[in-house]
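Appendix B. One record, verbatim.
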Amino acid sequence: MKKYIVLIIIATIILLFSTACGSRYEYVEDELYFVEEVHYEAQHYEAAQHYETSHYEDVFSSGRTRQEYLDDLDFLYNSLVKNFPFFGVIYRGMGIDMHSYYLEKRERLETIDDILCDLSFAMQVNGQFLGRAREWGHLHMFIDGSHTSFLRLHLEAFNYDVHNGDGIFVNFLAELDNPATRALHNLSDEHFAAPTPTEQSVIYATHSNNIETEILEEGRIAYLNIHSMDFATMHIDEVTLLDFFHEVADYEHLIIDIRQNVGGYNRFFPNLIIAPNISESLEWEYYLFLMGGEHNNHMLTPWMGALGEGYFQQVDYAVIAQLPYLSQEDIPLLDYYFHAVNTIYPSLQSPIFGGKIWLLVSEWVFSSSEQAAIMTQQTGFATLVGQTTGGDGLGFQPIVLTLPNTGIVVRYSAAYGVDNLGRNNQEFATTPCIYNMPDKDALQTVLYLIG
């Protein structure tokens, strides 16, 4: 029997439904929430990959025609043009012209003789086209054996939802269930079948090294390092955090460090950090925009309703007028929008910690940890210190897209997330309230300011 251990489950709801229905952030011990996977670092196209050689030598010796590879490349590019709203953001942020790289790659595929196998095609397209985006907008290709393990985590979560949950990922699961993708990633009927009672259980971690605590100055300064927003360790981390908050309740300063935290579960920070330490509810907001491409609509309809009829409504000028910093170049691409207003409620009758809270951030803060930085800044829960973050913290589960001939799977963020002024979070990220002082890191800066 397949061993079903989900340590990091896929994100399905990034505050979308709780916001729309007016519900609150609250810790529900026995309820299953899907969570976002920890960021898969964007350096794949620069380094050689490790393959499951025995499997991949067979799969990548496919004997496909050159035209089939060209068709897959064209399908990928055209799908992104119609559904992925970040080409302009990528160009403005990094000077990367994805259209030009596509044309160069296509011209090369038309002429060179050493590309007619799936492995060469995948590596070249990822290295010379897709990977140039460096995962901005969660743009990523699943290629080799390490990616197969990562893809299977997605697949397990999609499968669990389809057979035991709300079925919002039925089209995600169907997108991966095709002969080419099955062969590429060695997937069998077992991976798509209804989970057994044993497999249905989310197996939580039995121990955690996720939380690091330290007393920097007895009776005055406490330090807390959160390595990830990990769903699997959340039940353990909650105990550790609450115990520590009580231990330092009367301290003057609490320093929370998420500088190396690249994401995880979106409710980790509001549930475990903010809610126990506030006396009144806090609100924060953002906007999500979508392109009205056929693939977006198809994938999201079971989840959010058809575009224009469900959660996402057609963009109008009244919405645009409320967002003065929304990119004028991107506005023509944005067909639908959703305005999220989120409320974080106190989880206790009175806050545990009553002193000053500092949040340390860096360029590595991404995805769910980026969302933590955004809500902290908007609500004033803590003072942000450090460097501009990595961004991409406003959105929902990335969309999967399968290339028709090779079965190669690409994922991308369909959600163009902006703050309440219209600034795209991937492009502008979050700027700290206080930047690092010269020759000091964020922790040293805070300690200097505390005196």
